[in-house]
Amino acid sequence: MSHHAPATTGIDAQVQDLVAKARKAQAAFESFSQEKVDAIVREIGKYVYDNAEMLSKMACEETGIGVYEDKILKKKGKSRAIWNSLKGKKSRGIIGEDKENAMLFVAKPVGVVGAVTPITNPVVTPMCNGMFALKCGNAVIFAPHPKAQKCAEHLTDAFMKIVKAHGGPDGLIQVVKNGSVQTTQDLMKTVDVVVATGGGAMVKSAYSSGKPSYGVGAGNVPVVIDRGVNLKDAIEKIVRGASFDNGIICSHEQFILVPEEQYDEAIKLFEATGKVWYTADEAKIQKFRDVVFPGGMLGKDVVGKPCKEIADLAGVSGIAESTRIILLRAKGAGTKDILAKEKLCPVVAILPYKTFEEAVAAAKANLIVEGAGHSAGIHSENDAHIAYAGTELPISRLVVSQPCSTTAGGALDNGFAPTTTLGCGSWGGNSISENLDYKHLMNVSRVGSVIKGKKIPTDAEIWA
After folding, report:
1. The listed CATH number (3.40.50.300, 2.30.30.100, 3.40.605.10, 2.60.120.10) that belongs to domain 13-216+436-448
2. Considering 128, 136, 151, 250, which one is annotated as catalytic?
3. Domain 221-407 has what CATH class?
């Protein structure tokens, strides 16, 4: 329970009402057993899994971005991986003890969670944040992007039917209607904890709301192809990652670094996938720079759009409907080419490198321009090289020999926590440098007793 009186002066009436209902619901939900809580959380994930096609169609129609087939895979993949990771984890009451140190751990809710939802993931982000919030006995209020409102309202209704079927309270899961920047800010000031997934300005206002917040920074994933790997295999994984959902996932491959002596072979292999259109023609590349970064900023018209549409906007012909990636040869890394910035669309840059150290330095230069703290990818079998990249790069996750966009947020065969919210550490202006998990929405009371029979060291031993 939260014991501080909410500061309601000047706060939007709808928000006040939502939060009041949420506090009431949360107080009732707090007494639910682990089994009851888990049954509800499981069914929320299962609803999205079972209705992936319908929800994907709804997302495509409402937001106008992304790829229907990929959205189905994303909904099935995320719901499956998140429930699999939450299954059997203790999150209510006594969750563990450390006998050796005479400590007992008791989980408590954080209260009312305000979850801000982006246009890029209008279904899996509310699903994920809803599952995490409820897992720990909290209430949740979604604040969707205006172009993701229908999806959020549909999910809220569907999830609440599940809550009610399990005897849960009214108002446990709610959604802001006709939201604005102002209602979102008011919500962030009034709830107990904020989960902010979306653009930089919104994340910044979450951190200035005066409430504990988990925000995410921009992505801009550089990928190093090391020498001595199966080039065809690495390229197929990169194409799968970079083209997924038309490049709207913040962890998708953006900039590929390839050994100079393998550059021509790499281009042939990219083209051989049948999904990649490549050019090194500076005049054509400039047309793409102008349309992806009008006035030096990412253009709204290209986000999540198919290649053919982006090519038409750029006035470049010869790109087939079936093309999934536009691959452009960059002039250089970091500040040397605007293509080194985050492009939330299927336009990808490629650059040859001489030494492995030079490749890592180029990746780092890109991240310093944009995306520091997020993710990088490497395709390598050289443990020393993998460790070097992991040490040198300002990132919260280095994804090794996997399609980055679909695995940085957790997968059934890696150790990243399954989530839709990827913390970027202090580099990205975030409070966590890991994947947001249910444990971030849980307070833990630590009960400490005297450790029986503990030998106390002397000062001389301590300083020895």
Report:
1. 3.40.605.10
2. 250
3. alpha beta
